[in-house]
Amino acid sequence: MDPAHRTPPAGQAHVLIAVKELGRAKSRLAARLGPQERTALVLAMLRDTLTAAANASGIAELTVITPDPSVARVARECGAGHYADPAGEGGDRLNTVLRAAATHLRSTHGRGPIVALQGDLPCLRPGELTAALAAGARAPRSFVVDHHGTGTAALIVGDQEADLDPAFGPDSARRHRLSGAAELTGDWPGLRLDVDTAADLDAAVMLGPGRATAAELDRIGWPGVAGTARRIHRR
């Protein structure tokens, strides 16, 4: 993590967002979008996610974990720190690097709330993350299930003594529940809407994406986005 980043004030959270190499991102959209379009869309969704998170209350710092220099550049442009995830494979790589980043964070910045957040939340509203963080403060560990009901949009450590203990991947909601994390039940559609498929992207268009994503989808010519772009999601 960038050494210039300060120690978060007491009670304020540090957000961790892991993003894989752009060449491997959003493969389930390959039938509709080419490699360059998928790359541009990933970066646009990350910008909107970081913008919303930066404007949420109770967030002190944001760090993007990635081996990709283009992702790291966007993180810096959005005011986030960067933790250099070394390129490599492995079935549990995401959870491994999240644990490593959380451990590094605790050793350099002290113990405090941590949020592991998906980076593809183009409809995230600051107030949603603020509310989820406040709800998560009532439990040592908690999570927000995604819109499919099986994945995890955010994992929150509200107890300064608790470990992140991430279990992202297939059926992560069940695995986080079995690990003892409390499921948060707030009405947060933007926080729950991570984008992996064309159907997810259509849902994001209906809900209203952030400025960067709306502009990119308009450039791509994604169906239905022109009307959405005129009512760009307000930050």
Automatic annotation (TrEMBL):
It comes from the Bacteria. It catalyses: phosphoenolpyruvate + GTP + H(+) = enolpyruvoyl-2-diphospho-5'-guanosine + diphosphate. InterPro entries: CofC (IPR002835), Nucleotide-diphossugar_trans (IPR029044). Phosphoenolpyruvate binds at T152, G169, S172. Keywords: GTP-binding, Nucleotide-binding, Nucleotidyltransferase, Transferase. Its EC number is 2.7.7.105. It is an enzyme of class 2 (transferase). One of its GO terms (molecular function) is phospholactate guanylyltransferase activity. Pathway: Cofactor biosynthesis; coenzyme F420 biosynthesis. Pfam families: CofC. Belongs to the CofC family. PANTHER family: 2-PHOSPHO-L-LACTATE GUANYLYLTRANSFERASE. Guanylyltransferase that catalyzes the activation of phosphoenolpyruvate (PEP) as enolpyruvoyl-2-diphospho-5'-guanosine, via the condensation of PEP with GTP. It is involved in the biosynthesis of coenzyme F420, a hydride carrier cofactor. This is Phosphoenolpyruvate guanylyltransferase.
